[in-house]
Amino acid sequence: MRIATYNINGIRARFETVTAWLGEKAPDVALLQEIKIVDEAFPREEIERLGYRVETHGQKSFNGVAILSRLPLDDVVRGLPGDESDEQARWIEGTVIGERRAVRVCGLYLPNGNPAPGPKYDYKLGWMARMRARAEALVASEEPVVLAGDYNVIPEARDVRNPDNWREDALFLPATRAAFRGLENLGLYDAIRLRTQAAGVYSFWDFQRGAWGRDNGIRIDHHLLSPQAADLLRDAWIEKEARGGAKPSDHVPVWIDLDA
DNA sequence: ATGACTAATTCGATTAGA
């Protein structure tokens, strides 16, 4: 079972890029972030025609997440628990029924948090605390669980080309990285780090300042795996070449293969 | 020293992204 995560930066702007990618790569599951559209306006039929079940949790203009699955998808839940007043669409989960195993899959778009300090950064850290509580419950289930998406977290200095440029940034502040380690300390594994310890493995290159041409990237799109999911991991990688393709997002797809 | 790019909203300039 291949599970990809992809921040598409707008389904309207990225429709042809995304449908071409689905047609070519055909991941079993695609977790999308920043669909930037309400559920009723999402191009559901066009993507169903490519063989996918479509579950969205959208909102107008910003944010919005989706699960696309070629496999049966049950028990879909929208929204991150813990704050009834939070209206931002950043979390969706469902159970994907593989040939051998069922996998609980969470698609997430973690808040950016800039500028820091400030209310946006407070929202980010509060959101991460709520995510930790949900992740703790999922780990306790002792089932294969995958939490994947745009974390807006640079975990370590080896995950950014120029660490000194990011010292004051919400994506790389010590409190941000500590909260990410807090997730790992529940017993979750960063899938790419089960595959390689190399520096310079990035998933995002800014549209500005010629970041792509200079390989001035950061790794912020992650799959965290429960122990039961990590036991099923066959491979993980980042589709870097997508950043140089036609009408690219600023993020590229990242995928894992599970024996499930 | 500063802006640089892209998308959404809605048709121009603002907000947001990271």
From TrEMBL:
GO molecular-function term, one example from the UniProt record: double-stranded DNA 3'-5' DNA exonuclease activity
Family the entry assigns: Belongs to the DNA repair enzymes AP/ExoA family.
PANTHER family: EXODEOXYRIBONUCLEASE III
EC number per UniProt: 3.1.11.2
Sequence ranges assigned to domain Endonuclease/exonuclease/phosphatase in this UniProt record: 4-251
UniProt protein name: Exodeoxyribonuclease III
Keyword annotations: Hydrolase, Magnesium, Metal-binding
Alphabetized SUPFAM superfamilies for the sequence: DNase I-like
Lineage, highest ranks first: Bacteria, Pseudomonadati, Pseudomonadota, Alphaproteobacteria, Rhodobacterales
Keyword DNA-binding: no
Cofactor(s) essential for the protein: Mg(2+)
InterPro entries in the record: AP_endonuc_1 (IPR004808), Endo/exonu/phosph_ase_sf (IPR036691), Endo/exonuclease/phosphatase (IPR005135), ExoIII-like (IPR037493)
